[in-house]
Specification:
Blueprint lengths: L1 H20 L1 H38 L4 E5 L11 H5 L6 H10 L3 E16 L2 E11 L2 H5 L4 E4 L4 H6 L3 E4 L1 H8 L9 E4 L2 E9 L14 E5 H4 L11 E6 L5 H15 L11 E4 H44 L1 H9 L4 H37 L8 H27 L3 H6 L1
Parallel strand pairs: 3-8, 5-7
Antiparallel strand pairs: 1-9, 1-10, 2-3, 2-9, 4-7, 5-8, 6-7
């Protein structure tokens, strides 16, 4: 053990001496490895960060949750657009019928979703996500509030003119979102009082646009917008311990009963599983990671040859020293380990440089992107492992040649 530590320490000294004496040659070799690590790790960092952001948003749609809609979210050529469009939309009454007949449901919500403009005095905000919800919405997809509260059961039942507003909209209208409570906004001529402000969540790629939204009871929204044109859907959440497959099987049978479909008729609805969507995304990102790794790996191979080249030159320059070491009793394995260690140290130095520039890249991308980009601990370990493997591959042939030198011939050279 002590012998190995001494070899590693000596190899580190020789590597630093090589860097001091032959700066240009060594730096050029390190740049090859650094660029390869930069390409691979930056691509994996961006993809992994984006995947985490998307998966977190998918989870926010609700765990063990099924979206019952006329649209199939997976799409595909087998389900053409015209076929989906011709299907009937979900009805509020269907939510009650499904809940009454189900044994596996925890709760089911009816949701209307459309876009429109809202105003306060002379200020107008366009393209706002407008949601008409039922009390079950809070059970299935809990909302975090910056200020205020959720709509009360009595307000739901009466269709009272109250609403919940997104953080960004509250900030645009009132400066301080906390000042929005009790104020009124205008939606298509309807005066609605704000009772809650949703906490800031940031831009969403999928799912809910909470920052730029207005939520009100379904009973109220149906007096402002047409129900059928507001893309109504049912959101069903299974009881704890109920599998997604079991829930989907039960819901399919119940929906066919509710829609009074005969055995020969095909479904006129789609059951969209959040879990299935998450798995599909995971498969997509695996493919993306593989493609990114191949592209970055090509750059790393170039860097590996750069390290191999400098090791061949190093062996040539130290031939006489190698001969002396062998003449006084150094074993082949000792010489082999020494040069492999030196090649690995060079790769680790190049990897450290590459990681530094990846870190700079994450700061730049995070400042312009709508999601945080970060280097995970697993990617740090991956970098070390890659550098170790590349170092061994780059140094194995030069180190093998050095270990096989004849001491007498080597000293004469």
């Amino acid at each position: 053990m002590r012998k190995s530590i001494n070899i590693i320490r000596n190899s580190l000294k020789l590597t630093l001496e090589e860097l001091r004496v032959n700066k240009t040659r060594t730096i050029l070799s390190l740049i090859g490895v650094a660029f390869g690590i930069f390409c691979i790790i930056l691509v994996l960092t961006i993809v992994n960060s984006f995947e985490k952001n998307i998966q977190d948003e998918v989870k926010s749609l609700g765990s063990n949750t099924i979206y019952i809609d006329k649209w199939d979210y997976s799409g595909g050529p087998d389900q053409p657009f015209w076929k989906f469009r011709a299907r009937p939309v979900a009805k509020y009454e269907e939510a009650e019928l499904v809940k009454r007949r189900s044994q596996l449901l925890d709760d089911i919500a009816f949701l209307m979703q459309t876009t429109g403009s809202i105003s306060h005095q002379n200020d107008v905000i366009g393209n706002v996500s407008v949601y008409g919800i039922t009390p079950a919405q809070m059970t299935i997809q809990p909302i975090t509030f910056q200020a205020g509260r959720f709509i009360s059961p009595a307000e739901f039942q009466a269709g009272s003119p109250v609403c919940i507003i997104g953080y960004t909209n509250a900030e645009d209208f009132f400066g301080d979102p906390n000042r929005a409570l009790g104020r009124q906004i205008d939606i298509k001529g309807k005066k609605v009082t704000i009772v809650g402000v949703i906490a800031k969540e940031g831009k969403s790629f999928i799912g809910w646009n909470y920052d730029n939204c207005v939520m009100m009871s379904y009973e109220l929204l149906r007096t402002i917008y047409d129900v059928d044109s507001s893309n109504p859907i049912l959101i069903a959440k299974g009881k704890p311990g109920v599998s997604t497959d079991a829930l989907m099987d039960e819901l399919k049978g119940i929906m066919r009963q509710v829609r009074k479909l005969s055995p020969t008729q095909e479904d006129n609805f789609s059951l969209n599983s959040v879990e299935a969507f998450s798995k599909a995304l995971a498969s997509f990102f695996v493919t993306l990671n593989i493609v990114g790794s191949i592209v970055g790996g090509i750059s790393l191979i170039v860097g590996m040859f750069s390290i191999a080249n400098i090791m061949f030159v190093t062996v040539k320059e130290r031939t006489a020293i190698i001969g002396l070491k062998k003449a006084i009793g150094a074993k082949k394995s000792t010489i082999l380990f020494e040069f492999l260690t030196e090649a690995t140290i060079l790769c680790l130095l190049g990897g450290a440089i590459g990681l530094f520039f990846v870190w700079i890249g994450t700061l730049i991308i995070s400042s312009v992107a709508d999601f945080p980009v970060f280097i995970s601990f697993s990617l740090l370990l991956t970098t070390v492992l890659i550098c170790l493997v590349v170092g061994i591959l780059a140094g194995i042939i030069p180190a093998s040649q050095a270990s096989k030198l004849d001491p007498v011939v080597a000293i004469r050279s």
